[in-house]
Amino acid sequence: MTLRILIVDDHEVVRLGLRTLLNNQANFVVVDEAASAKEAVEKTLQHRPDIVVMDIRMPGENGIEACRQIKAHLPNTEVLMLTSYAEDEMLFDAISAGAAGYVLKQGGGDELIRAIQRVGQGEALLDPAVTQRVLARVRQATRQEQAAAFSELTEQELRVLGLVSEGRTNKEIAKTLFLGEGTVRNYVSSILSKLGLTNRAEAAAYAVRHNLHEFLEELS
Where is pLDDT greater, at 48 or 219? Predict the structure, then answer.
């Protein structure tokens, strides 16, 4: 299978070297070059390549923003990042933006060729240590988002909302939490008011959308 490749780097000499290297491979075809993130997105939409080989650091918008836009428009186009440092902080954001992996610039041409072949076969090139740190960051961001979603509610209101999301009636909630039905009604009204919702169905949907049960487990 021939892989169609777009090269993105703000240095013309680098682009020329990459084009020469990749075009010498029997199953690679460089369809075009781009010198900026904006141009990368435009030319990716124009050519619809299989793989975009892109410098992670460029003046103006960087490769991460270009990757995010490319994956939003063309999810089947893979993006392989070129970076000078395996510990580059930007790698976290690149992987979160949808990059299939990265290759160190100081690596040899053979390493880049193998990386492109692997990505072309649907593999991801992610260092296990980097992957674990990315996942940890994603989990942290999720927890922060959940905390923000329920920040106005007391612990008791969170418990009530959790039971509402399970379809429990006020009577059932009262029995479970050892409360009076009137107290439960007051809690439900307070929850709806604080979250800007109008009924129990909306409250249940809100709880599910923001993973309330997972949030409650974190609290316990």
Answer: 48
